[in-house]
Amino acid sequence: MRVVLAGGGTAGHIEPALALADALRRNDPNVGITCLGTERGLETRLVPARGYELALIPPVPLPRTLTPQLLTVPGRLRGAINAAASVLDTARADVLVGFGGYVATPGYLAARKRHVPIIVHEANPKPGLANKLGSRFTEHVAVSHHDSPLPHARFVGIPLRREIATLDRLALGDKARSYFGLLPDLPTLLIFGGSQGARSLNQAAVAAAPYFRQAGIQVLHIVGPKNTEQPEPAPPGGPQYVTIPYCDRMDLAYAAADMAMCRAGAMTCAELAAVALPAVYVPLPIGNGEQRLNAEPIVAAGGGMLVDNAELSAEWIARELLPVLRDPNRVARMSEAAGRMGRRDADVALARMVYDVVRAAGSSAR
């Protein structure tokens, strides 16, 4: 079987694609996998690092408003479609799986042109333009929200990395805390804002450092590589406030924590629910409001808290979050609620869909 994955641009598109690739390869080490991408996206680093072939096509950002740039789109899109079609031909693709983003639109159009079966995966409650288009060309649409507006939507969840999907937080807790220089027996809060950090989270959390110490709460704070916020050093033997610029072992970061404070991207919400880690979600205050929509079902189920970016402050943390962290029974109930909202086998479910689609296409061809 030969599969082309179209999911470039951001980690939210790339990581589910790579998780699917891993699931397909676990089932059949000889499966052919090619990832479509552009030179602008994170895929230029992430895809080769995971051992998969990357084929680059020209990026074609679609303007959201009527601008002179809109006049250049048809010509550039035509070039990207032809480039994607060439990748499909070279790979002898049996199926194209799209995850949205810049590369998905030319991928879908090229697959339609070449009569290659299409599967669409949508991670967000509000589908992007690419997946709205792709869903018109196929009946095979996998989604991560039960009330998705896309036609033919089938709930699958978001494919996650194996080290996250199989994580046993409780079993790894002591090892994880030791790894980050934390004490084994104190309530622990994990703070992160994505790969680049989040300034408002960083500022509020660092300002709240004295409150954390007074409450006996230790903190693991992934501040981002370009952020310089640092709390005053903690006295030896007391609750620590550990800051790191980046973390390539998020499995251990999750295992070290009793609770998280973070943004509410689709991947973040899916990972935290899968590992049953309750969180304070602080949705990014820009865009179409999809981060709030990602977090709301988890919060409604009792698996987290929600606070607007503008309301987050050291005082809010002291008033609203610290009493929760100091109540282990409440944290345990929130953990159970978050876990009920998670799905750990979305990669397997989506891989099964790929096999079914390829098998059906082969039968119809015969």
Overview of the structural elements:
This protein is an alpha/beta fold and 366 residues long. The protein has two domains: 2-162 and 344-365, Rossmann fold (3-Layer(aba) Sandwich); 167-340, Glycogen Phosphorylase B (Rossmann fold, 3-Layer(aba) Sandwich), CATH 3.40.50.2000. It has 15 helices and 13 strands. The chain has helices spanning 11-27, 43-49, 73-91, 104-114, 129-134, 162-165, 169-179, 199-207, 209-215, 250-256, 266-274, 290-300, 314-325, 328-340, 346-365, and strands at 2-6, 32-37, 53-56, 95-98, 118-122, 141-143, 153-155, 188-192, 218-222, 241-244, 259-262, 279-281, 304-306. The strands form two sheets. It has a seven-stranded parallel beta sheet, sandwiched between helices. The chain has a six-stranded parallel beta sheet with strand order 10-9-8-11-12-13, with helices on both faces.
